[in-house]
Amino acid sequence: MAWKSWRASRRRRKEEALERPRYGWIWKPVLALAGLYLLVSVGLGIWWSQPPAPFDVEQATLERRGEAAYLPGARGTVTVATLATSVATLREKPGGYLRNDIAPPGIWLDNMPSWELGVLASSRDLARALPRMAGGDNADLEVAREALMGDDRDWFHPSTEHRLELAVEALDRQLVALADVDEGFAPGRGLAAWLESLAARLDDLALRLAASVGSHEALIELAVDAESLPPRTPWYRVDDIFFEARGTGWALSQLLEGVQRDQADVLAEAGADAEWDRLLAELAITQRRLWSPVVLNGSGFGLFANHSLVMALHMTRARDLAVHLAERLAEPPPEELAAGEE
């Protein structure tokens, strides 16, 4: 009887287990998948946070011109091709454009989105200046300018990626038009205005970087008036401004070199070659490798470096050079031009 009773109770337990299954085991694979997803996201985040290497403006121009590369390009060809490549890099780099991401790992990142903002802002400045450089109304350049002016965080259609693609396509169409030597940019036109906008952007970055320094002596070294500073930068935003400055330096290094190739005769005539090269060298320094895993805000000769202070110093020097170049390349007033033609 005891044997039969034991077998009957065992059978009932099995029936109850089948009727009311326990799901405690399912948490193990769920936790394993979550851990794997987190590991992959961290790996992708580290990879996507690496800025792309600078590109060769001449090679980029040849690649973008395609079959027309064997033909002599008009003035402005290298400038337009360099801008198109800079904008295309925002979409083609590892991870693509991250600033408008709404899912991990992109939404967790802040350094690369800030770097993208620096590149995009510099590209916008040149896109605004291109119609004047071209010497008149230009439909493709206007399309590129309007496409780059959109919200940099749009993720729904038309997304920022879509507008970046429209800008690149419009700039590529302009490259086709520049295959005709008679359609080139006017010599030196619009250079001074573009350099002034460039100087204003560098000045804004220098002030925001200096606002995180907090040392009066350091601000004196930068020739910064403490009263002109914006509100003190919160500690959690210091790295964002630093990487925005890095992105600005990356973009301007290429854009300035592209303009230099197109306007070499104008720069030589104005005696601005050496100063232009110094500006490029100053911006190149901003791209040196950051050995620390985080942006530090040390002071003086202390144990820790002050990355914001160093970057503010280079932004200030680049700003001053841009101001001097704008003054040297300033276009004469219209009445002086008319008098000269007479």
Structure, described:
The chain has 14 helices and no strands. It is mainly α and 342 residues long. It has one domain (47-341). Helix 4 (77-92) packs antiparallel against helix 7 and helix 5 packs antiparallel against helix 8. The protein is elongated and about 115 Å long. It starts with a helix and ends with a helix. The model is unreliable at 335-342 (pLDDT under 50).
Identify the notable features of this structure and list them briefly.
0% strand, 342 residues, single chain
Brief characterization of the structure:
The protein has 342 residues and is mainly alpha-helical. It has helices at 2-19, 27-48, 57-65, 77-92, 111-134, 139-148, 160-177, 191-210, 216-221, 238-262, 264-270, 273-285, 307-328, 334-341.
Please describe the topology of this protein:
Blueprint: H1 2-19, H2 27-48, H3 57-65, H4 77-92, H5 111-134, H6 139-148, H7 160-177, H8 191-210, H9 216-221, H10 238-262, H11 264-270, H12 273-285, H13 307-328, H14 334-341
Helix pairs in contact: 3-4, 4-5, 4-7, 4-10, 5-6, 5-8, 5-10, 6-7, 8-10, 8-13, 10-12, 10-13, 12-13
Give the overall silhouette: elongated
Distance between the termini: 128 Å
Structure classification: mainly alpha
By DSSP (H or I, 4+ residues per run), the number of helices equals 14
What is the N-to-C order of secondary-structure elements (H for helix, E for strand)?
HHHHHHHHHHHHHH
Relative helix content: 55-70%
Taking pLDDT < 50 over at least 5 consecutive residues as the criterion, the unreliable ranges are 335-342
Mean pLDDT: 84
Structural domain count = 1
